[in-house]
Amino acid sequence: MAKKLAIIASKGTLDGAYPPFLLASTAAALGFEAKIFFTFYGLQLLNKELNLKVSPLGNPAMPMPVTVPSIVQVLPGLEGFATWMMKRKLKKKGVASVEELREICIESGVELIACQMTVDLFDFKHEDFVEGISSGGAATFLEFASEADITLYI
Amino acid sequence: MSEFDVEIDSSGLNCPLPVLKARKALADMTVGQKLHLIATDRGANKDIPAFCKMTGNPLLDSSEADGKLYFTIEKGEANG
Q1: Which residue of B16, B22, B55 is in closest CB contact with A31?
Q2: Is B16 in Cβ contact with A94 (below 8 Å)?
């Protein structure tokens, strides 16, 4: 019987998007049955058009080419610049894009589940999500997670 | 170096792309055929053997030369 991987994706930032899609796509390649349950800000990872950002603000461990004091990080454009820099670095180092990893997840049968409660909470629409997304609640996740070999909260 | 049927060059690509490319190539191959995988991702040194072990595709050979990693993987029975 196939091993099972259950992930809760709760972050909607560019850096937060990598672990769930990267691990689930690799798990599928290793023959796992994998499901990702998207809740709160993680729901942004399901949008057809991804506009994910990374912010150095409140993230003192983020490597920056020059030291940028927190008071300066609130200036308009700083977040956009940090995101642009990060995307350029990812590409230069041959790291797959989030879109690419998400596509591989879908192709390889990873089930992507939108948390219905947070979809309603934020007035998100299923039409805005990529094709093939299912929806469910806490019990849906727990049922699968109770039989999973690996369960991660990201 | 052993002979092979399919070759995939994942040079320049980082984790987990070498594994995902190997998986995709093996899916289109028949049992007993050999895949030659080239990688520059240092993590592949551990990741490819782990992938082979978990998917039942025997790793026949691995070597390193000029900063590149070379793997020969046989398509196993268990692999779908």
Answers
A1: B55
A2: no
Q: Smallest CA–CA separation between B2 and chain A, in Å? A: 24
Residues of B in contact with A104 (CB under 8 A): 20
Superfamily classification of domain A4-52+98-153: DsrEFH-like (3.40.1260.10)
CB pairs under 8 A between A and B: 36
- Residue A3's closest chain B neighbor by CA? B54
Average pLDDT of A31-46? 97
**Closest to A11 in 3D by CA, of A30, A37, A49, A48:** A37
ipTM over 0.90: no
Exposure of A147 in the CB half-sphere (CA atoms within 13 A): 13
Q: Please, where are the H alpha helices in B28-66?
A: 44-55
Q: What is the pTM of this model?
A: 0.91
Q: What is the mean pLDDT of residues B61-74?
A: 96
Go through the domains of chain B in sequence order and give each one's CATH number: 6-34+41-68 (3.30.110.40)
Tokens standing for B70? 């070379």
